[in-house]
Known about the structure:
- The chain is α/β, with parallel strands linked by helices.
- It has a single domain (7-19, 26-311), classed as LarA, N-terminal domain (Rossmann fold).
- Helix content is 34%, strand content 20%.
- The chain has twelve helices and twelve strands.
- The longest helix has 18 residues, at 51-68.
Amino acid sequence: MERGLNRREFLAYSASGVGTLGVASTGLGSLLEAQAQMAIVRWTGAAPASPREEQKVASQLTEKVLEALGGMRRFVKQGDVVWIKPNMAWDRTREQAANTHPDVVATLVRLCLDAGAKRVKVGDNPCDLAQKTYAVSGIAEAAKKAGAEVVYLDRERFREVNIKGERLKTIPIYPEIMEADVVINVPIAKHHRLATATLCMKNYMGVVEKRQLFHQDIPTSLADITRFMKPPVCILDCTRILLDHGPKGGRLEDVETKWTIAAGTDIVALDAFGAEMLRRKPEEIGSVKKGAEFGLGVMDYRKLNPKEITLS
C-alpha cells in the first residue's frame, strides 16, 4: 500500500488542488513490496487474570505484529509527526469492545517514539461526547502515559477537501491529520448494524465531518476516503471483538475475547481477515468488495502469505 500524505505533500496538495499522489512520488513502492505485507499474532497462553497481565499481553501482541512487518521504523522516520487514529467513538469500557484497546494504542505510541517520531498525536472524532469517550475508553490516559499528545478534534477546524472520489467528491477532514507525516489506523473489529462490520476502512470515518454523506453509499464512500488517505500501515485490534449490537454495543454477552492482532500494508486484506473473525465471509462486507474493486488490496488475504505467530 502507499504511504499517506506527509506535511510537505499536503502543502503541495493544498496549493495544486490535486487530491492524490502516486506511490512513485514517494519512492516506497518497491521497498514495501519486498517486505511482509501482513502479520497475525495470537496469544495462546492463559487468559490474562488482571489488568496488569492484560496490559502485558496486549503490549506483546502489538510489539510482535510490528516486528513481523519489519519494525515501526519501516513506517516512521526520525523527526516524523505521527497521528494514531484509534476507534475511540463510544462511551464504553475496554471490556465492552466498542473502542480500540488502550494498551494497544499506548504500545504503538511508544514504538513510534522509539522509532524517532518527533511528536505522536492520538485523536478521533467520536459519536458520543469526546470528553467521556476519551476517558471511559481508557485510551486518553494510556496514550498520555506513553508520551502522546491527546487531541480533541475541534469541529470548527475541519476543512473541506476535494478527495475526488467516485461517490464523495469533497468531505471536511481534520487538518492536523492531513498534515501528519504518518497516519496509523488502529481500529477494533466489531459488528455494525449498517455497514455489517467496522474494521480498518470504516475507521476513517473518524477523520471527517458530515458523516451522514457516507450513508448514501457506505461501501463506495469508505473506498473513496481510504484511497485518499493512502494508509501506510493498519493495525486491527482483535483482542476483544464485538459480535452484535454494534457499533456501540454495551452487552458483555456480545463480546468475544480473541487476544489476536493483525497488521499490514493491505487494508482490504486486513478487513477480510477481520470479517472472518466476526464470523462473516469477506464478500459479505460491502466495503471489502468495493475496496478490492478500487484496487486498494486483495480480498483473499491468504494470498499475501501472512506471517502467523503465536505467543504464550
